[in-house]
Amino acid sequence: MLKDSLITGLDVGSTTIRMVVGQKSRQDEKLKIVGAIETPAQGISKGVVVSVEDAVSSISAALEKLERMVGQPIDHAWVGISGSHITAQESKGLVAVSKADGEIRPEDVERVIEAARAMATPPNYEILHVIPKSFTVDYQTGIKDPIGMTGVRLEVETQIIQGLTSQIKNLTKCIYRTGLNIDDLILSALATAESVLTSRQKELGVVVINFGGATTSIAVFEEGDVIHTAVLPVGSEYVTNDIAIGLRISIDTAEKIKIREGSCLPQNFKKHDEVRFADIGGIEDGSFSKRQVAEIVEARVEEIMEWVDKELKRVGRSGMLPAGAVITGNGAKLDGVIEVAKKSLRLPASLGYPQELISSLDKVSDLSFTTAVGLVLWGSQSQSNKRRGLPGVDTIPRKIKDLIKSLLP
After folding, report:
1. Distance CA 61, CA 213 (A)
2. Using 50, 70 and 90 to split pLDDT, how confident is the model at 25?
3. Nearest 5 degrees, angle CA 194-CA 55-CA 259?
4. 338 CB contacts (<8 Å, ≥6 apart)?
5. Non-local CB neighbours of 379 within 8 Å, separated by 6+ positions
6. CATH code at position 122
7. Residues in Cβ contact with 31 at an 8 Å cutoff, skipping those fewer than 6 apart
């Protein structure tokens, strides 16, 4: 296995850290997943670092486990970033085409994206991505790839995604301290979309919902472009908390009940369907009603879907995405999530599994691994674009990486 051909994705979640390694075969450029691990996360809350020491040791533990699995050292990774500090806004750029013959070259595209990027960012914020949505060449709008066309002026409409500088620095510092280099920081919602959505779904209009432990991130696509992203500060941990409060039991027992008996469909249970706490490994005496648990879970999942719908209303897409909602993440494993999503969002809904992967590992087709797999796919795509001389999505500026590395002992 050639070390240079490995592409690693690191998904730093609030409850779990997941890492996936892929390798491109020399013959057909197909990506094969060769390693996937998960370890408990500490020092991370709602997508942001709350304890550097704990986060460093959690990421180090994940890295060691992965290196043992693939049998060689891993020194760089594509890293997912999330958290409610991330915001998105529109920006436009305009440049004159540089060559006298008017042919648009990759350099012109890079210059126009740079012009869009020069917008005023709020203080203490750092640009994560500048995503070109569409180009205009001499008033001809709606162009996806202007390279090779002829014109005098080139315009671009972009979506700019930015995050708090302090949060970005904290995350990157933790990763560098484990000895891992960062290929780039990628918004987790975009990485998830990379692994679970088809280009047809993105074209028609779709929302991908990553139902995580402490946060739920969404990305809305239409005509192949990202039109909105958001990170909501609620996740499947809230379901666990509600079960603990509703049944007056410990968080650990509530988590076991959620995993074993969690359902959003109270109508499937009779009033007297009861399970003893001891049967699911709880320390409490007595029993609980499956129907009562399902009512608690349904109410919380409905609330999370209402938050998602509020975000869709902000961009005028509530109930109006033909390819519907694709739900993924660990929280999507709850029985009946799809039924609640269909009702709350008034959209078709389905579970999002990683698409077209070659792997002998069962783990990578798990709903909770979609972000880590998406980061590997993103890395693979970026490498292909570089080889073809295409500009990719502009991501974390080199200066912030260099600054953090220079500060490390």
Report:
1. 20
2. confident
3. 65
4. 327, 349, 350, 351
5. 7, 8, 9, 22, 78, 183, 184
6. 3.30.1490.110
7. 7, 22, 23, 24, 357, 358, 376, 377, 380
**CA separation for the pair 195, 226 (Å, rounded):** 15
Q: What is the pLDDT of residues 193-208, one digit of tens each?
A: 999 999 999 999 999 9
**Residue 201, CA distances (Å) to 187, 225, 313, 377, 378 in order:** 20, 11, 20, 17, 18
Domain region containing 316? 232-350
Spatial strand order in the sheet of 153-164: 87-96, 153-164, 125-137, 140-143
d(CA 40, CA 44): 10
Amino acid at residue number 308: V
For residue 180, is it within any domain? no
Does residue 204 belong to any structural domain of this protein? no
Residue 56: closest CA among 167, 168, 180, 164: 180
- Please determine, for residue 67, whether its predicted confidence score (pLDDT) is greater than 90: yes
Strand partners, 76: 181
